[in-house]
Amino acid sequence: MSTSKNLKLVEDLVNKSQKKNEIQSVDKIASYLSRIGNHQELFKVGKEFQEEFKKGTKNFAFTSTGFKNSQQRMILGLCCYFDSVDQYRIAIVSDHLNYGVFDDLVKNSSEKTYQLAKWRDKVKYYSYQHHFDFFDFSELLRVYDEHQYTKTFDYEIKSILDYYDIVLWDVPTIEKMKLSAQFHYRISHFYEYLSVIVSPLTSSAKQVEQVKNFFANFNLNLRSILFETNSAVEKPKRAKILGF
Question: Which CATH number does the domain housing residue 222 bear?
């Protein structure tokens, strides 16, 4: 067989392999999307966030009254929505990459690093099949702890975020944020649009008020309230009427 034919055969095999990987990647995302919940509701919420994006908002942060899995499902759902709209560069920042719905995606991601501009340091992240990149809060905290007394921490983080069109923040619990309050205060400056996820069955007005007041101390206002679906509520104990 001639050299040109050999090269053509190798090229065909590589193309087939790439297409197979792309199909598997899409199928995997679709399988996760099928677990998220009501697709019509997801489309409606996605449209609302897209409108905010069109206004210039790119950093969307999500907290909750104790529904960490719901935060991840919402973020993954929005990733799928935006990924279907256009080829946006999307980043996800979470403190639970090895748990919940992110776990399998991160395990199937490629580990990469960003070289920081001002320091001889790198930030590790995980790239999932050219769809989106995962960052761990602990990695950003490490950088902060090592360089917190410099004035360039915010600049370095911004230089990374500027690469992306959309950044989705899976905000840690309030209890966890209090353990590194100064770090989270500085990181919260990047949050442009803060949403809280509540349950119509188990969340109370008091819980929502506590979340609201905590982030008010960071000069952040809740911009939207998203309702957890019944299917995602973990063992509801009682019904509550939310006071808002």
Answer: 3.40.50.300
Q: Residue 9 and residue 3: Cα distance in Å, rounded?
A: 10
217, exposed or middle or buried, with CB in 10 Å at 0-12, 13-18, 19+? Answer: exposed
User: Per residue in 172-231, pLDDT tens?
Assistant: 999 999 999 999 999 999 999 999 998 888 888 888 899 999 999 999 998 988 887 543
User: Which helix H or strand E contains 53, and what residues bound it?
Assistant: helix 39-54
| Residue type, position 234, single letter | E
- Tokens read off for 198: 């509540």
CA-based nearest residue to 189, from 162, 165, 157, 212: 157
Count the domains in the chain. Answer: 1
Tell me, yes or no, whether 106 lies in a domain.
yes
**Any idea which residue has 């679906």 for tokens?**
229
Q: Say if pTM beats, i.e. exceeds, 0.85.
A: no
Instruction: Answer for the pair 143, 123: CB distance below 8 angstroms, yes or no.
Output: yes
Residue 27 lies in a domain: no
